[in-house]
Amino acid sequence: MNFQENYLHCVSVRKDISVEQDPKILIPNLYSYDALPVSESERCAFLHLLAAGNLSCEDLFSFSFQPMDCCMLLYTQGGSGKLSVNGTSVSLTENHLLFFDCRQLFSLQVAVLPWSFKIFFLSGDRLGFFRDLLHAKQAPLFLLPKFSPLPQTFSQLLGISESVTLPQFLLMQQLLDQLCTTLCLSAQETDADTSASLSDIPAYLIEMKDLFDHHYAKEFSLSTCQEHYSVSKYRLCREFAEYFGEPPLRYLNHRRLEAAKEMLLNTELNIHEISSLVGFENVNHFINLFKKYVGTTPNSFRQKAPEVLPVLHSPSQ
Fold first, then answer.
1. How far is it, in rounded angstroms, from Cα 58 to Cα 295?
2. 155-166 b/e with 16+ CB inside 10 Å = b?
3. CB atoms within 10 A of CB 243
4. Is the pTM of this model over 0.85?
């Protein structure tokens, strides 16, 4: 049984909405590997696409699935959808990437129209390794930062023809392996970051870290933090370093530099523009800090971009 036959055998239209869509809308591109000079068992040892598509749904749909032996990647660009599994619902909102193990009962439906998303069904023996690393999270959901390179990876995958040639198969394997590795690294880092119970951390420190993580371009100083939280700046420095590994302003600078690295890799913005966007008004200060902590200048880092693994935000909690 090929993937299309197995997919149609496992999917059904739920009757809880009045509009009925053809379930085939989720698998517009079906991949054939007949042209490859390798056996099926050799091909299945590698990560590969079964089906994929770039969709914009103007009508409602609601599909239920029996278990399928594959995984699904779904990246929402606009609108939203909902995945339900084991009585739990996961909202699939803009700029979020879902990695889902399809070997279980689940349902997928539109939440807010129009729902625009890219979807990939993938398989391969190596998938089990990545799936096991993410197994603790029932439906891992990742928030992609503004300048993430992963949407470009999705476009490259969708650019591969349905009758896959050997060069395309090798490219597909490279892209999927890098993508899954990035997700696993992000999940592992998040697990390490949250190993300490948040209940043990003072609320003002959690709020400070959240501000640095998501509003790093704003101007911060220890004096303004001291005034805002009514806590001595010396105590703020000591406690922030105790719980998060480094003093607050150094943490903020590292967060800004991480954002700058994303922009250097994935935009054509010049150094002055990037410096300002991440919160450094003095470009020379930005360059000096970048060289101090990254080990090279921003321009040199950009030139070595192909050697750098894509950066991804932590999984959504």
1. 49
2. eebeebeeebee
3. 14
4. no
